[in-house]
Prior knowledge:
Blueprint: H1 7-11, E1 17-20, H2 22-36, E2 42-47, H3 54-62, E3 66-69, H4 72-80, E4 88-90, H5 97-106, E5 110-113, H6 116-128, E6 133-140, E7 162-163, H7 167-176, E8 180-186, H8 196-215, E9 222-224, H9 244-254, E10 262-265, H10 269-272, E11 276-287, E12 292-296, H11 305-309, E13 315-317, E14 324-330, E15 339-347, E16 354-357, E17 378-381
Parallel strand pairs: 1-17, 2-3, 2-10, 3-4, 4-5, 5-6, 6-7, 6-8, 8-9, 9-10, 12-14
Antiparallel strand pairs: 1-11, 11-12, 11-16, 13-16, 14-15
Helix pairs in contact: 5-6, 8-9
This protein binds ligand LLP.
Amino acid sequence: MKGIFPINKFRELRTPFYYYDTDLLRNTLTCVRDELKKYSSYAVHYAVKANANHKVLSIIRENGFGADCVSGGEIKAAIKAGFPVKKIVFAGVGKADWEINLALDYDIFCFNVESIPELEVINELAAAKGKTANVAFRINPNVGAHTHANITTGLAENKFGISMQDMDKVVDVALEMKNVKFIGLHFHIGSQILDMGDYIALCNRINELQDKLEARRIRIDYINVGGGLGIDYQHPNRQAVPNFQNYFVTYAEHLKLRSYQTLHFELGRSMVGQCGSLISKVLYVKQGTNKQFAILDAGMTDLIRPALYQAYHKIENITSDEAVETYDVVGPICESSDVFGKAIDLNRVKRGDLIALRSAGAYGEIMASSYNCRELPQGYVSEELV
Ligand code: LLP
């Protein structure tokens, strides 16, 4: 065992694979729960898109959280993991009819609706089943987030949500409909956000919108502020559990929640990001002209974040204590962007060494593809490897 990994067990497994440290996952979830105890009207719906590994989902469900789903497949995964249907919300800018029908059949808690045409379809499909669907409107608050351009969502230029100017119109349309019940507002400004100022800007915007609705005597019971809390990719061990205290306090201090309202969060990355690592084996060490390459058996098909967002994941050689050398760490895929990191210092690497790509619990396994006809990586939780 070097550090936190059961190396001997790893040696028996086919690489690459995802490894989830369930002690850390449980600790993280306990911290979220402890914080939530301070606020009786707050609830967290875990964003299933971050990681839908069945064992991970089951542990999250055991801890009493709800599920935020963005597809029929995610709803099925949440239900399979035992999430109560009344704790499932369904978001997404393009819900297909079969997905809406599935959600209606399960009587999930709420649809987060992103346009009038979508609202009309939900109303129609609910009418056909003789049901009434709870709906919340996802409002695009035009609040920027200081994060990567590909994962900011709350600007007017993004495809997500209904613009603030259209809010009144959409609410009027919903109030006229017989098979939808308008219950609240939904927001999400982006992901991997570490600057609490971004959330303060969101709170201020929600306060304005609430005042507008109240002036029209429209009551809403439910506000959903999405997710987005970031993690420390540079130092996965330094603060393995994100600062949830600070995050919830920010909302408590800046959002004017009415006494009868509940506030929902959709945290994804912050709940599962640090507990996961992608474990890979070194196939070859190749000398280039001015550099050396460590060629892994994991590639962008297993972890796409570096290729897609130039994301940083800390890379460690977990089977060597030899002197440090510098490598470009690359995968085997036929794409120049299949690079995990350039000029990375690692304990000297040789064929067969195991390499950990850290902080890969969120948007790792779930975004894997079978490009190049590769097999999808397996996911193992620590408690099944003892
Ligand atoms: N709620 C909504 C409406 C969302 O769109 C998202 C993420 C979340 C909640 C959860 O956000 P989190 O707490 O995980 O930041 N694949 C990208 C991240 C995409 C996030 C998409 N939406 C990545 O690897 O960084």
